[in-house]
Structures
1.
Amino acid sequence: MIIKRMALATAVVFLVTVAVRAQDSCQRQVELVGGFSICIPEGWRVQEKEGQKFKLLFGTSGPTFTPNINFKDAIDPRPISDYATAGVDYILKNFQEVGATSVKLISKTPITTAAGAQGMKVAMRAEFKGLLILSQQYYFNGKGDQKLILTATSLEADQATLDPIFDRAAKSFRLEK
């Protein structure tokens, strides 16, 4: 019985070590102004856009849409779950401001990063200019009252392929010193 427990404990330590090394070996996008970084999905490109505080990440362009990951931050003293709920409520009430014809909340669940940061994952479906779009928003605490939002967007048709990529990127999130 003790040998089985030791073998199990050794296996768990090995798997955690492999997972941490895999996170550390990625190409990280460090946003010094925001105080965070994430792993860039393999094959994706990083691009600066005028007027944007943080760089944008883009996947392979399709005929009608390019999957992307963008970042925003805000100062807010509320707990991350309350902040995420307020963000969702705002989007559901004001979706027409960004040109969407409809937005539906799919899920809101806790998420933990490889670095141990606790956050919230919010999935929404929107109709935008005739396209069915899925948006995954990952809310994290930054430094002090800073809130960081990673938004990953794709066509609904690409969900099975891109959701795991988005989740891996979000789980690689970490605060930088």
2.
Amino acid sequence: MVLEGPTLVADALGRGIPLEALFIEEGIDAPANAPEATFRVRAGVFAGALDVATAPAMAAIVARAALPGPAPGDGPILVLAGVADPGNAGTLIRSAEAAGFTSVRFLAGSVDPFSPKCVRASAGSVLGIHIDVDREVGKLLDGLTSLGYRLIGAGAQRGTPYDRCDLTGRLALVVGSESHGVPDGVAAALDGWVSIPMQGTTESLNAAVAGSVLAFEVARQRREGRPG
């Protein structure tokens, strides 16, 4: 996967993730711990090669095999079912890492978590949490259930309000797309639903916002051992 810009490159190096190759524009200083495979490129080369409005001064290639594997223990897992917007998916990865989730699973219909836009939206968190792309929906859900995980879906108009819903223990929080919610095939396998109480006439929240709110509620309940 490609890391665009000095911030993501520095994040990878700071996390101890090896770079397969590093490309730096002429006139820009290389990081102190740059890899041996560091190459200089002419100014303006990145503008035609990378999908960003303002071309970064450097870019790197990272092997997916170098990214974190599954974390041990029974920490919460975030499952994205049909989250196709890379900005939403990247934000959810970022929130999952910050809230102490051990893994983010991408089901069929979701965006590629290693696409440049998703990587940028994650602000480097794609480098710090286990990411799994599993298109075999039934296999993944059955596997989580067999490990004792409860599958709780984020519902806009249904479910127990998050301050009354038990989100402790082995939990897989399932977030669907902003327009269609959790797909029917996934919804049928859920153990329950959790919702976010809202005021006014707002019917739903952005998928990234809703998933982030619920992720931190999961973190709070794990600290305190109880809902509410």
3.
Amino acid sequence: MPLIQLIYTSCLVSSAPEVIAEIHQTAKLINKSRNITGMLLYANGGILQVLEGDEADVSKTYLSIEADKRHTDIFLLSKNKISARNFAAWDMGFRQLTDTEYGDTLLDADIFKADRNEIENRVKPGAALAMLVLFGHGIEVIN
């Protein structure tokens, strides 16, 4: 079956640490059961996430994210066929960007500070994927 890579952004209704931890833990469990891999970045109430796997499983997971009341302003950046996974090591890698990391680049500002009505014009999928890969380096693999 062909692999799909889906990248989206969203805002969290609550940025309480326990909510973020719960979202990450739930993502790991669901993704493991569906053979989905990916990476989640969090900063300033915003999420940038990539999901990789079978198209039906990734689509089902994304639909559940869209229905999740903890997210708002969900925006699909890209959904493409891929020949290999970029995040094969993680059911769901996670990194909360520090104040030093967050906002150091224009892309960070576009993703995590953008007016959600303008994000389509301000954030390019290739740049978002590059950011996910960049911040994914150096994360200890714990599944």
4.
Amino acid sequence: MTAPTPDASTASVDAVVPGSTARTRVRRLPEKAVHDRQALYDVLDAGLVAHVALADDGQPYALPCAYARDGDTLLLHGSTGSRLFRRLADGDPVCVTVTLLDGLVYARSLFESSMQYRSAMVLGRAVPVPEEEKVAALLTLSARLLPGRVDEARGPSRKELAATLVVRLPLTETSVKAAAGPPDDAAEDLGRPVWAGVLPLRTVAGDPVDAPDLDPVRPVPDYVLDHPLRRAEAT
């Protein structure tokens, strides 16, 4: 007996397997689908920028946006003056994607050349974060992007809070895809006298650059020097 397909509108968030709904099932190259919720978390936790897509009067728009995963939701924030963000807060259908590019695959043919990647897609409708929870949500976003900073920097003022929209998007209907491995050349191309392989890619942070108006005796804090992306550069 075939198990019923989960309905993302009624199933609990942590029970919905990525790619298990009609809209998120991977049909093109289904072997690249990853049906593992931890893999979803791993992609979202490794990324820094999400592309938030929605339609405004029939015109699709995709907006790059900083985000943070907070349990089984995504936190997104933007200006109250943004028409698209107001539509997002009003509950318009949205598609959010995060992609991590891990390598360029050099095959012996251009057709088989490709990329190594991990990607996540989230479908649904966002809900505004209540005013009494907005500061905590913004601190979560800041801690995700700038670890250690929330203990030193000034928090948001009342005016800044009024100018900011924060929404939550449940991770209820999702899809995860991944491509890895060496080139998959056709047998007739294996003897072609060209190099084949993978050029690995990663995002790393360089050396901190002082603000031009910084007090010259102010050192770079350890949490900046030890940012995860700087550690990635050392490995």
